[in-house]
Write a structure and sequence with these properties.
The chain is mostly beta strands. The chain is about 0% helix and about 45% strand. It contains no helices and 5 strands. Strands 1-4-5 form a 3-stranded antiparallel beta sheet, with no helix packed on it. It has a two-stranded antiparallel ribbon with strand order 2-3.
Length: about 80
């Protein structure tokens, strides 16, 4: 059994959702980066396939300083 996190699941309710939909990840990896391409984070979420992805930010637009990405396996 995995230890349970004390953090609540999902994005901070004060964050604004900027994407909520399905993504096909052909190699099971997702990459998140900034528009200036200064920072990039790549994470392997599992096998290839379709995933439901929700992206929320603390402030939409150029002032965003924090991001929350929620990924769940799509059941098809």
């Amino acid at each position: 059994m995995q230890p349970q996190s004390e953090d609540p699941e999902g994005a901070d309710p004060a964050f604004t959702t900027v994407f909520d939909g399905s993504l096909l990840l052909p190699d099971g990896r997702i990459a998140v980066g900034d528009v200036e391409q200064l920072t990039r984070f790549v994470y392997r979420v599992g096998d290839r396939g379709e995933f439901k992805v929700r992206v929320a930010v603390d402030s939409p637009g150029a002032d965003a300083r924090a991001i929350d990405v929620t990924i769940t396996r799509s059941i098809t």
